[in-house]
Write a structure and sequence with these properties.
Distance between the termini: 48 Å
Mean pLDDT: 82
Largest sheet: none
Number of strands: 0
């Protein structure tokens, strides 16, 4: 039973991480096309270092 739960949680985490990567890619595409809300979220990611290395120079123009 423990093995089943461990496998289930591992697959769940993998699925969530895959969805997050796709979401980030679509968000980046929207930001590049001029979507202000997407630019803000990408800028905050660079400012806070969420999913990318902190880079205030890239964050400032987007936020």
């Amino acid at each position: 039973m423990k093995r089943f739960i461990l496998i289930f949680l591992g697959l769940l985490c993998f699925t969530l991480l895959s969805a997050l990567a796709a979401y980030s890619e679509s968000l980046l595409q929207k930001a590049k096309s001029g979507n202000a809300e997407s630019q803000y979220y990408i800028g905050r990611a660079y400012y806070d270092g969420n999913g990318v290395k902190k880079d205030y120079n890239q964050a400032f123009p987007l936020v």
